[in-house]
Amino acid sequence: MVTKKELINAVIRYVKAEVIPHVADRPTQMILSAALYAVNAKPEIVESFLNNPFVAAILRGEDGKYDTEVIFKVLNDLVKEYDGIPVKIPPIKFITSTENLLTFRKGDIETLEEYLKKEIEENEDA
Fold first, then answer.
1. Is residue 110 part of a domain?
2. What is the Cα–Cα distance from 113 to 8, expressed in whole angstroms?
3. Total count of domains within the chain
4. Residue 114 Cα to chain centre, angstroms
5. H or E segment at 100?
C-alpha cells in the first residue's frame, strides 16, 4: 500500500530522471517540466484524475492508500495488450505546434516500480 503523496513523489522523480532527459524535443521537455512543477507545487491538481470513478475503483485500497500490486498489474496488462502505454503530449500555444507521443514499455513500468519502492522505503526510514 502506498499513500497518495508517495505515489505522486515517485512519479515526479521518475519523470524528472527517466523521461525528460530522454525526450529530444525541447518544447516537450519544457511542457513536462512545467507539469512536474505544477504537480509538486499543488499536488491537489491530480485529485480529479485520482478521484475519477474508474481510476478510483482500480487504484483505491484501504484507508486512503493505493494498492501497488493493483497499480502495476493494470499498467503491465496495458503494456501487454497494447505493446506499450502511449501518452500524448498535446501542442501548447506559444510553446510548440506539434503533438508528441511518449510510449511507456515494460522496462519503463519496472523502473517506475523501483522509484515507488524507494519512495516507500525512504518514508519508512523517516
1. yes
2. 12
3. 1
4. 13
5. strand 100-104
**In a structure prediction context, what are the per-residue pLDDT tens digits for the chain, which is 126 residues long?**
898 889 989 999 999 999 999 998 899 999 999 999 999 888 888 888 888 887 877 777 677 788 889 889 999 999 999 999 999 988 888 888 889 899 999 999 999 999 999 999 998 886
Q: Where are the alpha helices (DSSP H) in the chain?
A: 4-14, 26-41, 47-50, 53-59, 68-82, 106-125
Query: Within a domain: residue 126?
Result: no
C-alpha cell at 50: 485520482
* Verdict on whether the full-model pTM lies above 0.85: yes
Cα–Cα distance for residue pair 8/18, rounded to 1 Å: 15
What are the grid coordinates assigned to 33, written together? 517540466
Domain span at 21 = 4-121
**How far from the centroid of its chain's Cα atoms is residue 85's Cα?**
11
